Every structure is written in C-alpha cells, then in structure tokens.
Amino acid sequence: MEAGTLAFLPILAAVPNTLEWSPKVAVVMILCNILAIAIGKFTIKYPSAPPAMPSPSLFGNFGLPAVLATTSFGHLIGTGVILGLANLGVL
After folding, report:
1. How many Å apart are CA 30 and CA 75, to the nearest integer?
2. Alpha carbon distance 49, 4 (integer Å)
3. At what angle do helices 23-43 and 64-88 cross, to 10 degrees?
4. DSSP secondary-structure letter at 46?
5. Which DSSP state fits 21?
6. Residue 11 confidence (pLDDT)
7. pLDDT per residue as tens digits for the range 60-71
8. Which Pfam families does the protein's record reference (predicted)?
9. In terms of DSSP H, where are the helices of the chain?
10. Residues 6+ apart with CB under 8 A from 57
C-alpha cells in the first residue's frame, strides 16, 4: 500500500455528531421550511409558474417549481440549523 492511500482517514473522524429524529428536530425543520417559504414569497419573480399545484387554495399562488425550490431551500437551512444546535448542545 502506498503512503498516501490512507491519508483521508482523519477526514472521516471529523464527521459531526448527528442526532436521531425527535419532535424537537421536526419542529426546527418545519420552522426553517416556513421561513424559506416566507422568503420565497417575497423574492421569487414568477411564483405561479406552471405546472400548478393540485390544490391552489392550500399553496396560494405558488406553482410546483416554487414549492420545490422553497422547501429545498428550507431543508438546506434546517440541516444547518439542526447541526449547529446539536453542536451547541441545544438539541
């Protein structure tokens, strides 16, 4: 084996401590998604771009692309917040 073959092993030891799912984690993720939807409501140029959602009354004037974009953004925010709170010992 070459000397550089196992050089990545210290990187594997730096993986953050992850949490198991709990209601607290779910609430944080839901709040982050609501925040992302609120941000998207004021910043997306064409929120009602087709295709439309099956229940427009539930999603307002958001089309499928806007819903997918805002909830994806919410999950990115939520992942960071959950990991950050876990490292601080709050969750």
Report:
1. 9
2. 51
3. 140
4. -
5. P
6. 67
7. 788 889 999 999
8. PSI_PSAK (PF01241)
9. 9-13, 23-43, 56-59, 64-88
10. none
How far apart CA 50 and CA 26 sit, in angstroms, is 30
Residues 6+ apart with CB under 8 A from 7: none
For residue 74, what are its two tokens?
């919410």
User: What pTM was estimated for this model as a whole?
Assistant: 0.74
Residue with tokens 């087709």: 50
List the one residue out of 45, 1, 22, 8 whose CA is nearest residue 91.
22
For residue 42, what are its two tokens?
């004021």
Partners of 52 in the β-ladder: 63
Res 80 pLDDT > 90 = yes
